[in-house]
Design brief:
Length: about 425
Amino acid sequence: MDFRLTDEQQEWRDHCHRFALEVMRPVAAKYDRDQSVPWDVIKESRKWGLSGLDWVQKVGMDEDGLFGVIYQEELNWGCAGIALAVNASSLAAAGVASSGTPEQIAEWVPRALGVGEDDVKLGAYAVTESGAGSDVGSLRTTAVLDGDHWVLNGTKVFISNGGIADVTVVVATVDPKLGHRGQASFVVPKDAPGISQGKKEDKLGIRASQTAEVVLEDCRIPKENLLGGMEKLEKKLERARSGQSSGRASGALATFEMTRPLVGAGALGIARAAYEWTLEYLEDKSDEGGPLLEQQRVQQVLADVATEIDASRLLVYRAAWMGRAGIPMTGGQGSMSKLKSGDVAMWATTALMDLVGPYAQSTDCPLEKWFRDAKIFQIFEGTAQVQRLVISRMQRQAFQERLKQAAEVLDQAPGAATGEPVAA
Ligand SMILES: Cc1cc2nc3c(=O)[nH]c(=O)nc-3n(C[C@H](O)[C@H](O)[C@H](O)COP(=O)(O)OP(=O)(O)OC[C@H]3O[C@@H](n4cnc5c(N)ncnc54)[C@H](O)[C@@H]3O)c2cc1C
């Protein structure tokens, strides 16, 4: 096993890092204060090949699956809010890719991402509702077929790029009695009648990313905008009604599963930014005990932060590699990577603020922003508590599976049926 990045991966990391340093960092504080959409950075990211369809294709080229997580770590090192503004559209693209037919993918992924340097398009992925985020089975937004159109009604809350997206992928229920098995995904273009932006959130962190309600009031979209098509939906509903197992997670759950290591990598970028800044800041600081970096109380904290960041990165890389290699994450490895990195980002920014002291409370100190930005990584794409539930259930299931396999091996061993001792 070789833990080193390849030359190509290192070049990609350096490219992403330069964008974060030269384009994002200089405007990070401004967009954090203004809470406005960083259009100039989004447009510039096209020129650098760091958003849009070309970027998604580039990320898909890496056979180890690491381009995406390297990108996320570096851009979130630059600014987590701007990073989400630049790449939240990929969630919509993933929603289309996981549920759509090949024709739908070819049509809607470019419309959600934009193609080339000048075609800036945004996508949004709208699942969460008031009272239905972790509990995705109880969505209340409805989709009803009316002739050649679907009619959508409901309100989605806390949607990244909500209201400004060119294409919103909406998860709605076709048959509420069936829980998540009665749900389907729909592509809704910005100019569809009945879609509008509701309340825009005034947030603690990642303020450069627009988060808003998406309101659907008798929103009419063509029948063809059902992702996966009518025949697939009818079969799925039929299986659910007859009590047969679906054999696979719902579209929404599958989409989130694919993106968890990417979210973990974002948290990792914040933790690393905070750690590196603190090391530099403390370099020439002293108190009555002497230079701070030579005091054991400070070294203990810094060593723990460095170790936790490395541990998170290993979990993130492993999950990203498993995803690309098609190895099922039966032990909850995707969730582990996101859980660990989110918790580390929150804990590390807190611990580093404690080291720095009162200055860390000031808005002049970048630690204050990183501390605020870190919190969301314990909330979106599955809260930390829900990640723990997922991991614990999957681990239990995997353990039962191992016990079953061991019992089968013993059953087939010579002499197992008769109980006769096996000759040496
Ligand atoms: C800035 C931001 C951007 C977002 N972007 C998007 C987006 O683009 N698209 C989208 O669809 N959604 C988005 N979300 C929504 C986000 O994914 C949800 O808020 C998140 O999944 C939590 O769901 P919830 O809000 O229903 O919280 P709840 O599920 O109500 O959770 C409330 C609390 O209860 C805990 N809890 C819930 N169930 C359990 C359980 N069984 N056991 C233990 N504890 C539990 C949770 O961990 C949490 O602490 C965004 C949210 C924010 C804040």
